[in-house]
Write the structure tokens for this entry.
Amino acid sequence: MRIRRVIGLATLGLMLSAAGCAPSRVKVEGEVTLDGKALPKTMVQLTPMGGKGHDAYGTTDDNGHFVLMSDAKDGVLPGEYKVTFAPAGSQTIDDFKPDPNIDPAKRVKEFQDKARKDADSAKKRGEAIHANYTKVDATPFTLKVPPDVPVKFGLKSDGTK
């Protein structure tokens, strides 16, 4: 009877310690500007460096402020990320949910068409995002999570950091 109790307690201890080993999410929020002005309606995406981890994303509000989430949960897993930006237009999280009634190829085309329209609208508003900021292999921005300082991304029209 005593051996069962010892094994039970040891198993419980292992389970509790394993649960405590999972990396906890970190709240990441900040601001995005373009040539010193707040950049609204912009998708901010973090892509893990080295291919390990989970992407994180968020959209700026009218003041250029964003809060990031990953896997539909608030916060970002610790690590190092490349940061990219793209016009978001009026997208909501529901836009990213799959619709079984729509052919996936048609849905991709709709997203591409909407992205072009959003980019054209942003350009007309003077909020054009340089191509360097939209590609993981070209972006000059990286972010270490948890961040050491307030998160501020200052984009420039010429695509430099």
Q: What stands out?
A: Residues 25-155 form one domain.
